[in-house]
């Protein structure tokens, strides 16, 4: 049951909080996921809680990169599952279906609870049975990302280990660099444009996950009909450092000219 009335001016944000708390109760979210969520909320305030044109550029470049990829994988953690499980499934279906569970705070119990959350949903279960989507990283995280000591380093051979493009929403930092060092392209979703993840990624989408995944899916669908040369052009014209600078300028201008009335 939701305690948040639909008319509340901050409905969406409060609903996301409820989802995160619910996922904690179900043993899906790491406790640290609560503070990570709060940090995200704070940055979302700074950007005005909407998808900026700057983020849209990153979304389009990401869609092009995902369509061009030979073996893309969507990495998911507790926060991503709490907020955007269904949206991630829809995106994966438009690609090769590969979703990999990759946890910083990896415990057997959380793995079980996550598996249950996917299989309890009958629509998702059917998609798993029909191989429209594949949930990797639970029983098959047998490979190791070189130079990454955390449990995030345990990955699936068919998933992140062999992927050419990895989408990493709400990342914790050092893995992005390790994946880039393996020669992979990393697309991250992170509301904090100052984070190490944001700076090390090939493409950073500075936007809230539940807002940007549906947009990403929309552009993936559209770009699947486009020729590869045009898509390559979109990717080649994208500069991540430039995009992050634009985002920081956007935030500082917004704050300087803000009307508090
Ligand atoms: O589930 P696990 O065990 O893999 O653990 C997941 C967390 C999130 C706890 C772990 O990865 C972590 O500690 O992450 P960080 O270092 O706190 O980074 C998370 C980033 O996600 C922060 O920079 C936040 O600004 C950002 N963030 C939080 N909520 C959102 C978000 N970005 C987009 N949309 C959000 N809703």
Automatic annotation (TrEMBL):
Substrates-to-products reaction catalysed: (R)-4-phosphopantoate + beta-alanine + ATP = (R)-4'-phosphopantothenate + AMP + diphosphate + H(+)
Any Gene Ontology biological process: coenzyme A biosynthetic process
Signal peptide stretch: none
UniProt KW ATP-binding keyword: yes
InterPro entries (UniProt xref): PPS/PS, PPS/PS_sf
Domain of life, source organism: Archaea
Pathway where this protein functions: Cofactor biosynthesis; coenzyme A biosynthesis
Family matches, as PANTHER family: 4-PHOSPHOPANTOATE--BETA-ALANINE LIGASE (PTHR40695)
Family matches, as HAMAP family: PPS (MF_02224)
Similarity remark: Belongs to the archaeal phosphopantothenate synthetase family.
Name listed for the protein in its UniProt record: 4-phosphopantoate--beta-alanine ligase
């Amino acid at each position: 049951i939701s305690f948040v009335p639909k008319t509340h001016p901050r409905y969406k944000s409060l609903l996301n909080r409820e989802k995160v708390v619910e996922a904690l109760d179900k043993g899906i979210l790491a406790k640290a996921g609560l503070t990570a969520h709060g940090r995200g909320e704070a940055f979302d305030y700074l950007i005005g809680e909407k998808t900026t044109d700057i983020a849209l550029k990153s979304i389009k470049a990401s869609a092009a990169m995902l369509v061009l990829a030979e073996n893309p994988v969507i990495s998911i953690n507790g926060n991503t599952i709490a907020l955007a499980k269904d949206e991630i499934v829809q995106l994966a279906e438009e690609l090769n279906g590969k979703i990999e569970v990759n946890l910083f705070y990896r415990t057997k119990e959380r793995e079980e609870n996550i598996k249950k959350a996917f299989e309890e949903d009958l629509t998702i279960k059917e998609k798993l049975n029909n191989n429209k989507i594949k949930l990797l990283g639970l029983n098959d995280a047998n490979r190791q990302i070189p130079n990454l000591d955390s449990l995030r380093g345990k990955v699936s051979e068919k998933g992140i280990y062999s992927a050419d493009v990895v989408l990493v929403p709400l990342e914790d930092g050092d893995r992005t660099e390790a994946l880039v060092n393996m020669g992979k392209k990393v697309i991250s979703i992170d509301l904090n444009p100052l984070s190490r993840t944001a700076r090390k990624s090939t493409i950073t989408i500075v936007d809230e996950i539940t807002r940007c995944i549906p947009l990403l899916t929309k552009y993936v669908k559209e770009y699947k009909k486009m020729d590869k040369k045009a898509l390559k052009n979109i990717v080649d014209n994208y500069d991540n450092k430039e995009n992050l600078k634009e985002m920081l300028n956007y935030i500082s201008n917004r704050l300087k000219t803000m009307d508090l009335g």
